[in-house]
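With this grant's support, we have settled on a layout for protein records. An illustrative entry appears below exactly as we store it:
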Amino acid sequence: MQSIAEFIVNNIDININAREVLHHSVMQNGVEMDMGLNGMCDELLKVIDGNKMSDFTLFPENLGIQRKKIITFKWRGKICEIGEHFDTQRTYFWVKMSPEI
């Protein structure tokens, strides 16, 4: 989850006024493979200033479901959606960043 948070921070200002949608995914490693929703939030908030987030929403019912969003929030003019993607042998976190309209 730290890699996802770092991607968000590093790319939040790219084309802030454009309608470009950014996608990124990263393989889960080590402790991330068994991380619960609270742990994911903790990792995000270590990198992203939670005081400046809005509309922070959790979807615990989507944990373990292919390509469903599990965390969403707005931050610095972008809507960030985070979820999981499952492959035959590995699990990935993904993020989709789109502009607020």
